[in-house]
Amino acid sequence: MxxxxxxxxxxxxxxxxxxxxxxxxxxxxxxLSNAIEGLKVLQSTNFDAVITDVRLPKIDGIxxxxxxxxxxxxxxxxxxxxxxxxxxxxxxMKEGAYDYVTKPFSLEELLIKLRKALKHKDVVAENxxxxxxxxxxxxxxxxxxxxxxxxxxxxxxxTVSNRDTTILIQGESGTGKELTAGAIHYNSNRRNGPFxxxxxxxxxxxxLESELFGHEKGSFxxxxxxxxxRFELADGGTIFLDDVDDIPLEMQVKLLRVLQEREFERxxxxxxxxxxxxxICATKKDxxxxxxxxxxxxxxxxxxxxxxxxLPPLRERKEDIPLLVNYxxxxxxxxxxxxxxxxxxxxxxxxxxxNWPGNIRELENAVEHAVAFCTSGxxxxxxxxxxxxxxxxxxxxxxxxxxxxxSLDLQETLSEAERKLLLWAYQKTNGNQVRMSEILRIPRxxxxxxxxxxxxxxxxxxxxxxx
Length: 467
Fold this sequence. Notes:
Blueprint: E1 4-8, H1 12-24, E2 28-32, H2 35-44, E3 49-53, H3 61-71, E4 76-82, H4 86-94, E5 99-103, H5 107-138, H6 148-160, E6 167-170, H7 177-186, E7 195-199, H8 205-213, E8 214-215, E9 227-228, H9 230-233, E10 238-242, H10 249-261, E11 263-264, E12 273-274, E13 278-283, H11 287-292, H12 298-304, E14 307-310, H13 321-335, E15 342-343, H14 345-353, H15 359-373, E16 378-379, H16 386-389, H17 410-428, H18 433-440, H19 444-453, H20 463-466
Parallel strand pairs: 1-2, 1-3, 3-4, 4-5, 6-13, 6-14, 7-10, 10-13, 15-16
Antiparallel strand pairs: 8-9, 11-12
């Protein structure tokens, strides 16, 4: 299908020249002399792009641009401006123009900009469609996954979203705890209320208390005016407290009171403020262990532990990696205005073999890096970050060299990698299964099953260590 282009310029010679060039290039072109007629046409006809002069009778090009964006936000607009009027071009870009050309310009220059603009428009549209397809099948918001572990997460979100139950999200850094909290909020009956976030990490008692509950004017040095806290701002919606394990013990009792009684006082204030808020907390630590160590209040733990949602690390859901890679690839290709349609098998194998200590956040950064260095329509292994192309894993135990081979058996390769990791852990701990499960971060029962599967016994410990 031909791309439809609307040209608006009061100079007849410019309209004719542009129309002739664009028609020869295979575009469907309409020409008008003023913006008023242009707006009438745009109300009844969809155009892929509008090329307009800044100087127009009755309505200038900037106002025309604003109205186009109201009528059809996805329509590409390229502004033509006279030499010496760059400020108009800058203003146009701020108002949503894709690009501009300064008169006099060559038709070839304009054509290059138009091609680039239309290609970008196609990439964005494809990315939106892809996201809609992926999310309808696999996830909530930006959460993506088809693994059994993620299906279980989605089931919990679906079940608890419309209930005001307090939720504790557990997971390593980079597993998507904030995204999960957002998915719960925006799929709940509180979705039209505020979603207020606060990271409690490394905030001292005074700062955290003010952040949570606000303060009155003059309550401490620097309190030059009354300030509402996060709980007050979240009234009618949801508050998400990340790194809740970092809340000082003396502050935990105040948080407990809010959870129990749904009221609080600002720092330095006497008025009791009621609040209607849903609380979601997140931690990357074992709160039960912190309770046993006396570093977290037991009563607060049980108040938070009403519904617990565990987010699996990426190394336990590697079947989701191709789906995530595809999503991030399209996202950053659209942002960087490049066309990337695929990833090579070798590059994907490297991503599957890596253990991802930084989880999804690390994977996203790796794909963004690859897109930035990609010079073709496909991501290659050489485009990936250096630690991946050199075959490092999070443990750094063994290299993966793929540059000299054309294909491999993925399951066989993953099994070999797993066997080597088990051997490394067995030798490092002298066969102590408790230590092995700790350094490999897997349950002991899972470890025992894998030791049997790969027939790893004391014969694999060096003789000097067995004596």
